[in-house]
Input
Amino acid sequence: MNRIIKLIIAAGCIFSLIAFPVACGGDDAAEHKAPVKKAEAKPEVKPEVKHEVKPEVKPEVKPEAAPEAVPETAPEAKHEAKKKAKPGPDKAIEMLKAGNTRFVDGIPNHPHINRARLIQAGKENQGDHAYATVITCSDSRVPVELLFDAGIMDIFVIRVAGNVCDTDEAGSIEYGLAHVNTPVLVVLGHTQCGAVTAVTHAVHGTGHALERNIPPLVDNIEPAVRLAMVKHPDVHGDDIIPYAIEENIWQGIEDLFMASPASRDIVNSGRAKVVGAIYDVGTGIVNWLPEHKTMDILKKVEANPDRAMNAMAGGGHA
Ligand SMILES: [Zn+2]
Output
């Protein structure tokens, strides 16, 4: 008898491992699907469990397994449901803000980092789940998923020293916006950025020799430093660095729009928003910059005849 119960419990565990991953499809996805499946799910789950096992096993299996027990019946409907469940730009920004607040407050949920999520990630399309693209610096003090209290398949991340938007980064962002269909792009600078500091020192003539591949990497930052100096003529020395860090974010957004007609189209159509933010490496706080500035930059770029025009590689239609 004991053996049977053990077998049934094991079967129950395996079942919940199989069933749970789909249940992790994000709060919205779960909400969206729950009402449809509840009714159909029960007949499948219960009979198996009911006969051999008595009260102990049932309560464990029922609440989690029931909503997900019958997804096979309508795979396309399921796919559609998930797609619809993706948040819009404002909701996605809200989710990022809420995640950062939990991180800062020391009460993170650590969502989507369990084995069930891994199994799900191996089976499903990240485009049905990831709700943000984030480009940020490679600095080890800027752990993207942690600081937004997010997990696997939540954020499409691009990291490069100084969070510059050159060709490779613009291409990666196009993947994030056009193929992973994330409703928001965050250009995330951070306090004490070494790349911005190095360029500031170079502009001031106090820098040191740089390895051969660093200058072409950080050359995108130089206009930001110079603009910060023009805007704040009374600020001297390293005190200009925080201003340069913010300008570098706006420069990144401008460089992206200059290089990427697809990103311009996506933002113009409202499918995604682009927002700037600065992460404070000492407090964990993400300070969000005014959203309207992105649209000002977009307008400026659209008036610039030097902007890239062909959205598709190979010069296809725009
Ligand atoms: Zn940095």
User: Anything to note?
Assistant: The CA atoms of residues 138 and 215 lie 16 Å apart. The two ends are 70 Å apart (CA to CA). Residues 1-73 have pLDDT under 50 and may be disordered.
